[in-house]
Structure of Aerotolerance regulator N-terminal domain-containing protein:
Amino acid sequence: MAFLEPFLLWGALAVVIPVIIHFWHQKKGKPLAWAATQWLVEKNQQQQRGLKLDNILLLILRCLLLILLAVLLSQPVLNSLKSKADSQPIHLVQPNALVSTNFRFELEEASKRGEKLYWINETAEPVDKLTELPERKSVTPLLLQAAIDKLRRENTEVHLYLLNNESLATVPSIYVPPRFQLHTLVDSTRPPRAYLVTKGSQKLFVGQGGKLTNSAVFEPAQKFQAAPAHSGQLRVLLDYRSQREQQTVEAALKALTDVYGLDFLIDHNQTGTTPYEWVLTDRISSNPSPQTLYIVSGKPGYPMAPNICYTGNALTAQTDERVANGQLPEWLGEQLIQHYGLQVSSLPLSQQELKSLFVVANRPDRKPQTLVHNVIVLLFVVLLIGERWMALTKNA
């Protein structure tokens, strides 16, 4: 038997408390003089020595209750009932031609064994053919985490096939099940960088040293894509119920325009059917577009798609630290850069960095075994009823 929270077993040491209380109540009392004592005849007086154990069964019940409570809180799991042979391997593959080609033999062998293969995307799409990649090929750590959480089941063994680069480390940790294997590949080629075309045919790109640059010409030492990720105006919808929040976000967008020359066409009410490149709102659409970047404020949530970002707080100086510190324009710019893939992420992580990034979750794939949990709870209730009945009967 294993325990999900083993440190709580130290609570069983509290068993000494009822023992101390029991012996405290068994201390010998002081004799009191009483006028009628002289008329009483001493009979069979015998000096008692040592400790007197009265109500020993009640003491045992109280000790067992504390031990059972500590075991219950530590969440016991009967791992011996599950063998590794019963594990269900699933394979999550980054939709990248280099990854699918390099690990083609392993993936085909897994498919022959009847193991499930999935692309890492919004829907965790099953892999039909390794040569037919899905339409959306970008993978973010949040999207990877969502795919793992969606597919993991009890006793699941997860295999991840990924490109090893710095983009994986944009989150503190990626949580994986206990049975997990990582297969990574370093892309030795340096892919061309993405860029945006802004006002006056200026080019916005991440240059040397990771600095966001707005220039008429590219840096000669860098290689860029043939076509921009976006050209011209960025259609933006500001849809906030709070006038103060709307003005705060609009001022942050104006700051991005002044510094980087981004050309925003801002609407305060949705008009027509033309899609927006950027939607900043306090309420998410029921049918969000996968090509649009959404910044949803005031609603804590888990981004099930890489183009949806929840801030948790309203974007005002009173409720959000980024606004109070003047960092809102910078943060919004980072979201836009990430959405269009401008960031440079070709450097690989070391093995130590990968080991620190992928963390085995402390929680089980499902709740602890119901049978074990229910048996302990039932036994605890029975002992508690017995202890209360015995304590009331003996007035102890």
User: Anything to note?
Assistant: The chain has ten helices and 17 strands.
